[in-house]
Specification:
The structure is a single chain. This protein has 347 residues and is mainly alpha-helical. The protein has one domain (38-338): ABC transporter involved in vitamin B12 uptake, BtuC, CATH 1.10.3470. The protein contains 15 helices and 2 strands. Strands 1-2 form a two-stranded antiparallel sheet. The protein is globular, with a radius of gyration of 23 Å. The two termini are 37 Å apart.
Length: 347
């Protein structure tokens, strides 16, 4: 017969043996919450720091600066959403910035040279972006070429086509006044373009989190072989993710024209793509640690935005934004990889 010894409180030794497990569980829950809310906490710290710092407080905390930062980073936010869809299924799209740079020329040329009405010009730009995504997706999903190589090649081609077509000259005339006004007007003191970004983010969030399609993409990103074995059409789903990414990049190109009031060959490049990827990877360390998610990505976009804005107001040289974005991407990739591996091991 087994005898269970008890302590003075009458609790058995078997319950004492559960205490390390309970302690480990509490530590794991605490660590998860720290990871989950670290980025929102950092964003709040950035806002507070630059608001009270003597070098920046007089400008940083103004409504005008908040509007300007929100307005300036709508384009990067849209690119981050575009980057997110291929990342969810385990692929990369390094062409979203160049895609936006190309489609801004498409929408501007359609209006300025061919006098296409604004709604149709916007649809044409989005369709052009989706077509570029279709080419990327076919090459990656059906031919089996590495997505990094494919999309970097596409980015180079698009940059060259834009420079050839424009002759390094901007398209300034013939742009719809309605589009320019949309890029400069506010609703409840928030730029109209920010409302558009939040609306698109909400749609992407719903698709990824609350539809079978989003769950399929997530399954492919976690284990493509297992996804194929359970009957998912992996190639077709990956292809669709690139098409949607291209369409969002096309919409980002339209926002570029709305923001600048023109189409310039310098706008839309690999640097923009790196900022978008930095936001997507940084977002994967927050809210749903170890997974690419929309809310974390949007928080990361504006964490980078307000950090760069505060440094610029403080008088730091302009190159700091590139260094900051590059460092954010490096740290975010390392952190999200470590978190993802630890969660996989825990599971």
């Amino acid at each position: 017969m087994t005898v269970v010894q008890t302590d003075k409180t009458g609790r058995g030794g078997e319950e004492e043996g559960n205490q390390p497990n309970e302690k480990s569980g509490m530590q794991s829950a605490l660590l998860f919450n720290v990871e989950r809310y670290a980025l929102p906490g950092l964003l709040i710290l950035v806002l507070v720091f630059f608001s009270v710092w003597s070098k920046t407080g007089h400008l940083f905390f103004s409504a005008a600066d908040f509007q300007e930062v929100g307005f300036d980073y709508v384009y990067i936010g849209m690119l981050a959403l575009a980057s997110l869809l291929p990342l969810v299924c385990g692929e990369f799209d390094f062409s979203v910035g160049s895609n936006a740079g190309f489609t801004q020329i498409v929408v501007a040329t359609a209006m300025a040279r061919f006098h296409v009405p604004l709604p149709f010009a916007i649809m044409l730009a989005i369709a052009a972006g989706a077509f570029i995504g279709l080419g990327n997706g076919n090459t990656v999903a059906r031919v089996g070429v590495n997505s990094l190589i494919v999309t970097l090649g596409t980015a180079g081609v698009l940059l060259g086509v834009v420079e050839w077509y424009t002759g390094s000259q901007s398209i300034n005339n013939g742009i719809s006044g309605s589009l320019i006004n949309f890029g400069s007007e506010n609703f409840i003191d928030i730029p109209d373009t920010v409302w558009l970004l939040f609306g698109v983010a909400l749609v992407v969030y719903y698709v990824i989190q609350h539809t079978p399609y989003g769950r399929y993409l997530t399954s492919i990103g976690s284990n493509p072989r297992a996804a194929r074995l359970v009957g998912l059409r992996v190639d077709r789903l990956k292809l669709s993710a690139f098409v949607l990414a291209g369409a969002l990049a096309g919409l980002a190109g339209v926002l570029l024209v709305a923001k600048n009031g023109s189409a310039t060959p310098e706008a839309g490049n690999v640097q923009d793509t790196l900022q978008a990827l930095a936001a997507a990877y940084l977002g994967a360390t927050s809210i749903r640690p170890g997974r690419f998610n929309v809310m974390g990505t949007m928080l990361a976009v504006y964490f980078i935005a307000f950090s760069v804005s505060g440094l610029a107001i403080a008088g730091v040289q302009s190159w700091i934004s590139q260094v900051f974005s590059g460092a954010a991407l490096f740290i975010a990739v390392v952190a999200s990889t470590v978190i993802g591996r630890r969660r996989a091991g825990t599971g």
